[in-house]
Amino acid sequence: MENLPNCPVCGSEYTYEDGNMLVCPECANEWVLGAEAETVEAEKVVKDANGNVLTDGDSVTVIKDLKVKGSSSVLKIGTKVKSIRLVEGDHDIDCKIDGFGPMKLKSEFVKKG
């Protein structure tokens, strides 16, 4: 049996060849051998709580009261955040909130608009 690479999306070792494509039976990802890095980079998409795709410069609204780490204050539901910037990591939104200053948020706690 030949030694095929793991799936670049989910890491599955059960990939197989289908013509000139490699296929992952676990996540249904298809790719051309040698194009793994391009596939992973192209699929990095940040979505809000409703599934809308977020981009740099969007305005979002907080959908849940959030405790501010290192402070006794709370970021209230409905707080509007303008001009977000998407970053890598667990907290994937970098922004500046009036009255709080610079902050990082998780995209699962905001909605677009």
TrEMBL record:
Gene3D superfamilies reported in the protein's UniProt record:
2.20.25.10, SH3 Domains (2.30.30.40)
Source domain of life is: Bacteria
Where is each Protein YjdM C-terminal domain found?
A: 46-112
Protein YjdM N-terminal domain location: 4-31
Q: Give the Pfam families listed for this entry.
A: YjdM, Zn_Ribbon_YjdM
InterPro entries hit by this protein:
YjdM, YjdM_C, YjdM_N
Q: Which family does it belong to?
A: Belongs to the YjdM family.
Q: PANTHER family recorded for this chain?
A: PROTEIN YJDM, PROTEIN YJDM-RELATED
The protein depicted here goes by the name: Alkylphosphonate utilization protein
